[in-house]
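Build the 3D complex.
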Amino acid sequence: MTATATALAGRHLLGIADLTADEIGLILDTAEAMKEVAERPIKKVPALRGKTVINLFYEPSTRTRTSFEVAEKRLSADTLNIAVATSSVVKGETLIDTVLNLEAMHPDMIVLRHASSGAGHLLSKVCRARIINAGDGMHEHPTQALLDAFTIRERKGRLAGLKVAIIGDLLHSRVLRSNVLLLSKMGADVWACAPPTLIPRGLERLGAHVTTSVDEAVRGADVVMMLRIQLERMEGNFFPSLREYFNVFGMTPERVALAREDAIIMHPGPMNRGVEIASEVADGPRSVILDQVTNGVAVRMAVLYLLAGGGDGD
Amino acid sequence: MPVVMDGDRMARTLARMAHEIVERNRSLEDVAFVGVRTRGVPIARRLAEHVEKIAGVAAPVGILDITLYRDDLSRHAVGPQPLVRRTDIPFSIDGRRILLVDDVLYTGRTVRAALDALVDFGRPRAIQLVVLVDRGHRELPIKADYVGKNLPTAPAESVQVRLSEIDGVDEVAIEGGEAA
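Done.
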């Protein structure tokens, strides 16, 4: 429960791959303290007073952007939201030029969501500000994996030794990659399941068991995590129809019954009801989908707080 | 490393402080203790037990973590961020008399942070400051209402309060100083 790390070694949060199990523990422990702030009459602490955080989002996002913004405001940081549709990016400016111009205004941190894998790494090479990756292409979405881990730990008291089934569009999912990396570092037993066309190569090497059988993935699971079918990223036919996908891979009450009696159901959102998950399951008593959203704020507060300290590192 | 207060002495000191608290607060019905993490918490619990024995009133005890209110967080930090732990005040502080408890009163900056944190939880009727040791060298206009022991120290020295709940022993020691 208690982490032995007292600080994050890196200046940025680009992916779970860069974190040790101890650092993950530190973030989750800090998030526990942050969660209490949301229960106060005045949901705000002065920890990041005078810090400026830019939320730079090159892809649509409601949940993640709002969650970061709430987290920043609860820590008293000054926040700026830049959505690409309304910025000079539509006039042809490159990512690096945009960010160098933003840097000239001396932000302390930049929260970046971008459609290209590795966009955060690129920026971290040219920026003085700390970069928090809020999702880069099909690569990583570290704060999502951290909030999922927080939610699991809150319900199960631990991560090690749990069977976690992750089912859905594995191929296009940065949430999957971050979750597999995190959960295997923390000693969980991860099962990833999808139609063969939606399984990325080399997934086993990240530390997951891979199967095309939902029953095998779900049987005896402590946690069932559904991933969204990302139609917007699909340029081809990965399965015959959404209805058929639901029939074979959708999470129905019958399939949930194969998991442990106390299993929890998770989904990072946004959900496609009737595609990857039945409404009875999404809204059922085992669903922790809205807890995930609540916990997202606490976890992002922890990351912002921990990255705000430390030296310049260069 | 002179030990300036041993276990016996600490027990008597806390008992005396509890009597002072009872004497100064005629009605204890609206009194609550809030201990500042880390060592203010067990001290607050012990004082609450004494008060209950003396006056028969069980005052609630809350835990306050002041890390997020520190005045050195946004000032070009060169080190890692201090660890944040959970604040747990399971009662409304509105209209109550709050006994804010810490182990050592030194610069007063921790107390300033604690006062800021407390008023974010509500509007207490009054806040009184309780410390086991006052070692002087204040940097802010803050004064304790109840002091276990006044301990004149040099700035280079450090005062260590050890409590059996955390450190396995009850004592107060002065450390360092001469070599510095």
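The beta strands of chain A are 52-57, 78-83, 109-114, 130-136, 163-167, 189-193, 208-211, 223-226, 264-266.
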